[in-house]
Automatic annotation (TrEMBL):
InterPro entries: C1-like_sf (IPR046349), DC1 (IPR004146), Nucleoredoxin-like (IPR052259), Thioredoxin-like_fold (IPR012336), Thioredoxin-like_sf (IPR036249), Thioredoxin_CS (IPR017937), Thioredoxin_domain (IPR013766), TryX_NRX_thioredoxin_dom (IPR045870). Its EC number is 1.8.1.8. GO terms for molecular function: thioredoxin-disulfide reductase (NADPH) activity. Keywords: NAD, Oxidoreductase, Repeat. Residues 1-168, 324-485 form the Thioredoxin domain. This is protein-disulfide reductase. It catalyses: [protein]-dithiol + NADP(+) = [protein]-disulfide + NADPH + H(+); [protein]-dithiol + NAD(+) = [protein]-disulfide + NADH + H(+). PROSITE patterns: THIOREDOXIN_1 (PS00194), THIOREDOXIN_2 (PS51352). It is an enzyme of class 1 (oxidoreductase). Belongs to the nucleoredoxin family. It comes from Rhynchospora pubera. It holds the Pfam family Thioredoxin_8.
Amino acid sequence: MAGNGGETYDITSLLSGNDRDYVVRNNGDQVKIADLKDKTVGLYFSAHWCPPCRGFTPKLAETYQNLTSQSKPLEVIFISHDEDEESFTSYFSEMPWLAVPFSDSEARERLDETFKIRGIPSLVMIDANGNLLTEKAVGFVREHMSDAYPFTPERFAELKEIAEAEKRNQTIRSILVRGERDYVLSSKGDKVPVSELEGKYVGLYFNDSRSGEWEEFTPILTQIHEKLKQNNENFEIVTVLLDDEESSFNDTLAKLPFYVIPFEDKSIEKLIRYFELRSLPTLVMIGSDGKTLRNNCADVIEEHGVDAWEGFPFSQEKMGILEEKAKAKLEQQTLESLLVRGEFNYVVRKDGTKIPVSDLVGKTVILYFSADWCGPCHAFLPKLIEEYNKIKSKHPDSFEIVFVSSDRDEDSYNDFYSSMPWLALPLDDPRKSFLKKTFKIRGIPSLVAIGPNGKTVSKDVRMLLTEHGAHAYPFTEERIKELQVEIENMAKGWPEKIKHELHESHELVLTKCGHYCCDGCDEMGGNWSYKCRECDFDLHPKCALEKADGENMGEEDGQNAAQEGYVCEGDVCRKVE
């Protein structure tokens, strides 16, 4: 049966190239494509430079080895997105399956276009009859591993029913007991029966003790745990430590006042999938009846700090009380309440000069959360510097940026900050964690604008600068509405449809859009495009309407420039479009 809309492919035509009827192993051996007959084939689009790919490949390898050891008719073919053969060879050496030769770039590009690959990792499954089963197998492997086989719609429906039944019948035992292990560990290493947790509220705390998030979050969670104990609440915490080194695990266990699941216990992977873990830290709240009350309380704790204990067990009613307190606190927000903590009442220049926070009062201030180790931060920085200089040239006394670093060492901090023309918080500054919690910073680069009155103006400054550049200043709702009107007016007088020599097969339609890469000049654009949806083809208006004498339409179109390529977010690296 064909899946996913009934598409059918000839695997030989898909994988072969000019004078090539084989794929290769990582030792150089050739395997005839004809030998893949009667097998389910997974086309694995991936690259060594892509962190989500490197995280997923071991899971896929484990799944592949489990299935092939059971003599399941399965093969995986690696289609590389690496930029050089050395990277391909190094990455492919970790894989137990086959690959399209790196040298056959034409075949690799053809496969990309055939399946419209816009993000990696991507895993396309095709059955032995050439029927497309799914283009979203990455998610199924992440969640179900080898249980996803044979990757048919019927199997996915069955897995969904099984998962729903598990949720309905969930108990603290079904969550924490694995095989013959029916205990968790205390900080002393003692085995504590899971039965002792029955009838109690239990927080499942997912984290990695080597991460910065652990150092910031765990002390707060410990204080909350102590306050609830003092208040005679029937509450325990079971830590799911994601450390991959036993020495690190044991060191953490000895210091931790919570229970812990044993090191590298097989239930950890299951719990990650079962609770759909997306970020660290995560705190899942389990009720006294063993049912899940809240999938993640970490955001509540990060927002409210130790005061979050007053919201226990984080029911809708209790959350309402916390939100009212937070609302009152927000209304009282000033720049000093954000940036002054005791003796820490200053920001610094690159030469170390301390600038009192009071000197920034009355200005529009952007808090720039970033780090040297972050690729997207490096990609965005030139754009930010360009727009900062534009705004400062017009508003020298009413605008400033403060760099809030997530770097882990002084050298990285100094190297990255040396290229910036604005102010910063010192590297080891206690205000940084407070600001990240206050503004719920989940990813970087992130920019938050504080208005002259000290109130938060926008948490989406990165998007506003990308789309509008310096024109977005001062980032208020009123200014954004004005820009939206300007964008609408910009296109007045432009033709709705055009024919262009760069895309003669179809008309191009004037389309309001987000970010895209112009197929004419290969630069980034936004707001308006002359687009062919059928072919996913875009032209900047300036490229589409360029006059024969070389003059363009006269509209400034450089404000949306950004680095071409990929942006890595969460579990995928996507092409910028």
